[in-house]
Amino acid sequence: MNSSTPAGVYANGNDNKKFKGDRPPCSPSRVLHLRKIPSDVTEAEVISLGLPFGKVTNLLMLKGKSQAFLEMASEEAAVTMVNYYTPVTPHLRSQPIFIQYSNHRELKTDNLPNQARAQAALQAVSAVQSGSLALPGAPTNEGTVLPGQSPVLRIIIENLFYPVTLEVLHQIFSKFGTVLKIITFTKNNQFQALLQYADPLNAQYAKMALDGQNIYNACCTLRIDFSKLTSLNVKYNNDKSRDFTRLDLPTGDGHPSLEPPMAAAFGAPGIISSPYAGAAGFAPAIGFPQATGLSVPAVPGALGPLTITSSAVTGRMAIPGASGIPGNSVLLVTNLNPDLITPHGLFILFGVYGDVHRVKIMFNKKENALVQMADANQAQLAMNHLSGQRLYGKVLRATLSKHQAVQLPREGQEDQGLTKDFSNSPLHRFKKPGSKNFQNIFPPSATLHLSNIPPSVTMDDLKNLFTEAGCSVKAFKFFQKDRKMALIQLGSVEEAIQALIELHNHDLGENHHLRVSFSKSTI
């Protein structure tokens, strides 16, 4: 019997011919016939093929025949879907699926057995699409989402030849529902993200549609699993994490980066020679054209072109008043005290706001220096917090430099030790991705937070240490719960800045080096 006319389905307005073998192509219909479907595929997975193109109104699975019928709300949506999947074969469970128009004009499945699961899946999808989602904890249609399934996905990106920004992830995953929160991080040298949807169903569809897909041609492969977490706690809105429901959150460990350092690689020839003029010479590969008649280049293993705006690709976000080279990680620091400043002093002070890689005090003008941070984000953060602060009697100024890097002196070049490379320093505070230090970045203050204090060191020992460094100690207290930490209040912010430079990493004995940070608290 012809696969397009299953028993019990009424073909409205159709003479219900039974073709043998391959049938001639039908005229467009909102009912689509899918072949070669793996036997273990779920209703939700089949529906996910149609979701990006419009509302799916009915589904009939013929499991024994590895076939299915999918009814779209409009013929226009079905045409877009067929046009889209003709050059880019869709896959379910890594198997290619073949789609063509059915000779039915609609599906009537009311009196068919085994339709409960299909109807439950359809109801769940329409709830997601219309926004009338049941509140968490309310009873939902059984058989749609596995009990206890999380709305949070863990995403690993393999073959990361191009930077993938939080904006790019948001754009891709928003196709499957409302994205509430995203956190990105690096773990085991892999770029990963946690992404929370409004509902576990959205997470399920996104996982089915996107797992194993490439974001760009032949690279940036998505590996997606459900997270054990059921909710994400986002503290800061910046280029590493974002809570889309809380626009009032601070930027925390930095302003949105002006441009990731890897953006330079976009135009680099020879990484991927792409025949498509995508953003900056490579063709993005995921995305669902919502309009009809989009011509899609045949990109093997990709989902078709993702309409990523170039600003999302480079992650650019304008910060008002930022001059110099946006995205530059080198700061020009001026109005320093030439008699007292050292490369090490600048390394310790700027190291409160990021990892300092190199410092150069100008040979001919020692009140000026260049400080190279690990990235543009950290440079911006250090500039915002330190410019205008007093250090050794002078008001320090910091701006973005026109230099892209600090050059080390050539061998034999007279330098007087004014240029130092700290890129391998053990004192970097932010080397570990997701380090607690990211959450404890505060502006310079007269109260310092001390940690890593050994048990034998007393309050008087610490007060004396700061007094000998030329500070007036106004107050001191150990943390009640943890005697390894304390707060010390000094006479002024300038004193505290100078004390931090002098005493951070001071050897307290017993293999303990004092850690000093600015505190948000007062005593």
TrEMBL record:
Q: What SMART domains does the entry give? A: RRM
Record-level GO BP terms: erythrocyte maturation; mRNA processing; RNA splicing
Keyword Repeat attached: yes
Gene, per the UniProt record: PTBP3
Pfam families reported for this sequence = RRM_10, RRM_5, RRM_8
- Molecular function (GO) terms listed? RNA binding
Q: How does it assemble?
A: Interacts with THBS4 (via the acidic amphipathic C-terminus). Monomer. Part of a ternary complex containing KHSRP, PTBP1, PTBP2 and HNRPH1. Interacts with RAVER1 and SFPQ.
Give the UniProt entry's GO cellular component terms. Answer: nucleus
Q: Which organism is it from?
A: Pteropus vampyrus (Large flying fox)
- Keyword Ubl conjugation assigned: yes
Q: What does this protein do?
A: RNA-binding protein that mediates pre-mRNA alternative splicing regulation. Plays a role in the regulation of cell proliferation, differentiation and migration. Positive regulator of EPO-dependent erythropoiesis. Participates in cell differentiation regulation by repressing tissue-specific exons. Promotes Fas exon 6 skipping. Binds RNA, preferentially to both poly(G) and poly(U).
Query: Which InterPro entries does the record match to this protein?
Result: HnRNP-L/PTB (IPR006536), HNRNPL_RRM (IPR055204), Nucleotide-bd_a/b_plait_sf (IPR012677), PTBP1-like_RRM2 (IPR021790), RBD_domain_sf (IPR035979), RRM_dom (IPR000504)
The residues covered by the RRM domain are: 30-114, 153-229, 329-403, 446-521
Give the start-end ranges of region Disordered.
Answer: 1-27, 406-426
Per UniProt, the keywords (alphabetical) are: Acetylation, Differentiation, Erythrocyte maturation, Isopeptide bond, mRNA processing, mRNA splicing, Phosphoprotein, Repeat, Repressor, RNA-binding, Ubl conjugation
Supply the SUPFAM superfamilies for this chain. Answer: RNA-binding domain, RBD (SSF54928)
Q: What is this protein called?
A: Polypyrimidine tract-binding protein 3
